[in-house]
Amino acid sequence: MKHKIKSGGDLAFNCISSVILFLALLVTFYPFMWMVLNSFRTTQEIFQHSFAMPSHFNFSVYRDAWKQANFSATFKNSVIVTVAIVAITILFGSMAAFAIARLRFPGRIVLHRLLSSSMIISGQLILIPLFFIIRNLKLYDNLLAVIFSSSAISMPFAIVFLHSFFRDIPTEIEESTVMDGCPKRVFFLRFILPLSKPALASLGIFQSLAAWNEYLYSLTFLKTESIRTIPLQMVNFFVMYRTEWQKLFAALTIAVVPLLILYGVSQKYFIRGLTAGAVKQ
Questions:
Q1: Domain parsing of the chain, residue ranges
Q2: pLDDT tens readout for residues 116-166
Q3: 66-275 maps to which CATH number?
Q4: Quick one: which of 164, 141, 156 has its CA closest to 207?
Q5: Which of 6, 82, 96, 101 is deepest in the core (most CB within 10 A)?
Q6: Cα separation of 56 and 41, whole Å?
Q7: What is the pLDDT of residue 131?
């Protein structure tokens, strides 16, 4: 009797969970589908029948949006900025996290707490002094200004995020490598980083999302049109074509697709990184 009650409770729980997940999927995915479908509608159709299927699918609107939004240049700029920020954050963030988690030196706990507390400082609060620093370094109107600024803001989160993973790696592995005469840098490269692939992938996706959508520093430090990133160009494109909603939705779809591809490729590692530590080994 108890077994049947337990099975019935599990069945009800599974049904309720499935319904909740389906509703969450619908709420999350529907705006994207609505955006894609509206990219095939005319402006008149969008306002008259916003939730109807398009009368026909004309993919030439994506070609026009690509050309008129100058995505050939802005897409390349966004890729450069995103790849550079992710690479810098993972490279230096992993080394700093390894030092705090695995090395013993005075003040490392205080340093970790300072890094943790620095995450409450938003980029807007330091924008003015950061502008003067960028100008004095003669990096104004240069992609390096956005790369260095965004990397610096992202570094505390990366260090704190990776610190917990590096700290939980069994010390027996390190002790055995030390007995074999393995230097710290070799242990870091051959053991710590491979064992932390899920965490690195999760961090890479988080930073890619933030870097790809970065707008504040691009607006502040970039002036020339040829080095604009996608978020900055999208604002200008919206001003120029605010009455042509079809092209606007097409441009937005183009801007979102790379992130969906990135998540699709890294989904396995991303989920493993988020759930690592949830089950005690």
A1: 2-38, 66-275
A2: 888 888 888 899 999 999 999 999 999 999 999 999 999 999 999 998 888
A3: 1.10.3720.10
A4: 156
A5: 82
A6: 8
A7: 93
Furthest-apart CA pair in the chain: how many Å? Answer: 77
In the block, residue with structure tokens 């490279």: 91
| Amino acid, single-letter form, for residue 67 | K
Q: Name the residue with tokens 């502040």.
A: 220
Residue 82 CB contacts under 8 Å (≥ 6 apart), including other chains: 208, 211, 212
How close are the terminal C-alpha atoms of the chain, in Å? 34
Burial annotation 51-79 (CB, 10 A radius, 16+ → b, else e): eeebeeebeebbebbbeebebeebbebbe
Q: How far apart are CA 273 and CA 18, in angstroms?
A: 23
- Can you tell me which residue has the tokens 């030390």? 178
> pTM here?
0.83
Residues belonging to the chain: 281
C-alpha angle 70-262-79 in degrees, rounded to nearest 5:
35
User: Which residue has 């330091």 as its token pair?
Assistant: 126
- Tell me how far apart the alpha carbons of residues 7 and 63 are, in angstroms, rounded to a whole number: 55
Which tokens go with 152? 């610096």
* 228 in Cβ contact with 218 (< 8 Å): yes
Give per-residue burial for 214-238: e unless 16+ CB within 10 Å, then b: bebbbebbbeeeebbbbbbbbeebe
25: number of Cβ within 10 Å: 10
Cβ count near 12 (within 10 Å) = 10
CB atoms inside a 10 Å sphere around CB 171: 9
